[in-house]
Amino acid sequence: MTPITVLRDLGLLLLMVAWVVAAHVGSTGWGNASFNAAVGVLPIAVAVLMALWRLPQWFLRAAGVLALGALLAWLWPQLRHNVPLLYYLQHLGIHVALGVFFGKSLLGPGEALITRMARRIFAHELSERKVRYTRNVTLGWTLFFFINALVSTLLFIWAPPAIWSIHANLLTGPLVGVMFLVEHLWRMCVLPPHERPGIADVVRAYRRESAQRSAPPPRS
Q: Cα angle at 100 between 94 and 104, to 5 degrees?
């Protein structure tokens, strides 16, 4: 790992921590409303821009950017006065999208998402045990994302904003870490050593899978 890579990863980590803190502060009603709304809108706007970037015609991309700007300008007064709702919709949307991303691979005749990732890691044919394990892990992540979205919704409706924000903004990352740890321990119990990928291998396979899906089509 080169020094540039280390600095880049460290910068991304610090940026994520800063965003989590800003999201928590904004969700609890502290700070400047415009700044809090801008922080909340930023990931959604980036996701929309990435989707527009995949459009084949340049004029569709340009029209989409203009429409996004006009929509944000029109909604800005409401966004400033509904910052917690903005963060909730963002948290809900991310978890539902990830749940669908993992879950839809369990439907139909195709292979589960993590099974496909395992085939990218291992050059040899996967055993039936490994295929069954990776399918169950895909199901586990699907349930994790949907359950976390449900818990977030219940807390947003019934709990004080600060309690919801602790769950959504401060605990989501650690919960994902716990999920990885549980999956790692389960893997150690049910798979022999030669069928266990390292964490770095899993990360690289996921990045390749994501890059393949997000690659823009050829432009006209």
A: 160
Do 96 and 145 meet the contact criterion of CB atoms below 8 Å apart?
A: yes
> What is the CA angle 173-176-177, rounded to 5?
90
Per-residue pLDDT of the chain (220 residues; tens, 9 = 90+): 566 766 776 777 777 777 777 787 778 878 788 888 888 888 888 888 888 888 888 888 888 889 988 988 888 888 888 888 888 988 898 999 999 999 999 997 889 998 888 887 776 677 888 889 999 999 999 999 999 999 999 999 999 988 999 999 899 989 999 998 999 888 888 888 777 766 666 666 666 656 665 555 555 4
Neighbours of 26 (CB within 10 A): 24
Among residues 71, 72, 94, 92, the alpha carbon closest in space to that of 152 is found at 92
Tokens 């540039």 belong to residue: 4
Rounded to two decimals, what is the model's pTM?
0.77
